[in-house]
Amino acid sequence: MHTLDLYPVPASNLSLMKIAQSWSGIHGKICYDAAVLASTSVRSLLAHSMPVSVPPQSAPPISRRSMMPAIPKPAMQAVEAQLKGLLLRGLEGDETAYRAFLDALSTRLRAYIRKRLFHLHDEVEDIVQETLLAVHNARHTYRADQPLTAWLYAIARYKLMDFLRVRSRHDAFNEPLEDHHELFASVDEEQSSAKRDVGVLLEQLPDKQRLPIQHVKLEGLSVAQTAQLTGLSESAVKIGIHRGLKSLAAKIRLLT
Amino acid sequence: MKTDAFISLLSAGIKPIDRHLQRKVFTRAIVLGGAGSLLLMLMLFGVRADIHLMLMTPLFWLKMALPLVLAATSLLLLTRASRPGVAIGSYWLAPALPVLVLWLAALVILLATPQMERYPLIMGVTWKQCPFNIALLSIPACVALVWAVRQLAPTRLRTAGLLTGLLASSLATMAYCLHCPEMGVPFWALWYVLGMLIPAALGWLLGPLLLRW
Question: Is residue A108 a contact partner of residue B29, using CB atoms and an 8 Å limit?
Fold first, then answer.
């Protein structure tokens, strides 16, 4: 995960080599490190890079970071198939499968986001949580005939761009030739602590939304039990959960 | 809250989702929004006096066909734009082609008309109000459709906003056709299309504001 930080080559050389690689046509993908690229004009980088011998395709740290997926395509297709199976069962109401889906997704999201926002390291976990919430709130728009990566990637990208737009850090994330399989490219299980506490935000919701979420989602009561306890109807409990999680997303947006 | 705990919260007590939600939501919005636009037309303008005659006139049905086709095609595109990761690409041709056909027909008709009579054919008698009336009648349909799209998950907000405006104004134009006395194809080709583009442009501008989630 921390290959970039540990890698001894200075940042400018790193991008030189990346340019040389993509120039020579070995890899078509453009590197993400826009901040480094922006400081020097591409033309001059290219002029300097031409005489430098092109590093072999197997140059490890660079290709691991952004040139090549960390795991090969067939493996990613296996990930796609596995996650898709879990999600589809989750959409039918299978809680265990859905949990496994969100767990697996969170490790990949974390790796994906951490690679791209290494200058905002302490906000990675916030964005992971925000994206998980977005995936959850949008889960009814997924259709089984659609590639799961494309669907997830569109949501992750939307949330990331939204986050960066609010901070006017539009420049920090450019992915012109990115393949959405990149989303599944690597795993990062090391949770950092979230800066914002979703629990505190949940407490600010109106009772009609807060109580159903608290009883059903946190205490594990059934919808019927919650209805009895709160005096709400069963459909009001379900609607309260649904609306509550949507307004939670709205609250997070207002904060960032 | 730790991410682990948050995942537990999200997955706890989930119920099977409604697979037909998108269809239901759009049906409801089109029926209610369309009815709203129709009602507004009846209140503000009223149905044209010779409507009995019109119902038997093929040209009247051709006039209706334009907004109908645009409504159908923009709905198709909007259902795609409301779901993450579904490309639109060449589907843009679907609403563009009928407009091109209309423009071509208008051009042919104008060329076949003596020069002196062309101007009234384009301007009709109501050109000053027509585009604004269509935009005004779109408001109820726009409100209903924005509500619908907000139930889904658009990730290209400007595109979704533009298509919402286009669908709403197509519905409004169908309602307006029951009032509007203009029967010149060149008139429709200019003023109707302009009227439909006003809400579409507003949708493009306001999409990021109204549809963000």
Answer: no
